[in-house]
Amino acid sequence: MYAALVSATHAGDETDARLKNLREHAAPMLRATPGFVAGYWTEPRDDKSFAFLVFEDEAAARAAAPAPGAAAGDRVTIEDVDFREIQANT
Prior knowledge:
By secondary structure, the chain is of the alpha+beta class. It has helices at residues 16-31, 58-64; strands at residues 2-10, 36-41, 48-55, 76-85.
């Protein structure tokens, strides 16, 4: 399995609309992506958040992960994406 480690910046406070977009649009869209296994998103703190997205293999992770600089909803910008092989899980 592979993980896409995504960092994002948030302009302004967390809004209900932003959280609703994540839960009702972004997460379900990702769930439907081939090779997707699981996703975890952190709460924003100091205008920064992180997502840990797990895929079956590196090709699926690279195909589905957002690109740095991309908009990811209301005033959210992807800053960095790193890909790592998952070596163990429980």
